[in-house]
Amino acid sequence: MLKNRAITYIIYSLIGLAVIGILSKLFYDTAGFFKGIAIMLVIGAVIFFVMQRLNSPGQDKREQRAFVKAAKRSAKRKQQKEVASHNRKKKTGSGKLTSIKKERIKRKHAPELTVIEGKKGKKKNRASFL
What pTM, to 2 d.p., does this model score? Predict the structure, then answer.
């Protein structure tokens, strides 16, 4: 218990001395005080931007962007198909197509798939390699 009180007094003393030092620097050397603050801010900003650059978007973020882009393209294609099929129905009049025409339409439109790059370089950890 006595040890904790001694450490507490030491910490409060250090904080008090720091406050006194900052205030004396502010009153007696204002320009130097603000210059020191500005230098600390600039160094902090440089460190922040360097860290941001090092933590650039990784593989997961690129894959997510690719997925969103593919989803938008898919939705756009679907919308275009709906408009085209709506216009085709208007042109046919009765709306009845022979089975041959239906087969041709089905064969023409292969599924439109978009490949999203995956983690190709990652090795699988299998027990059989031991």
Answer: 0.36
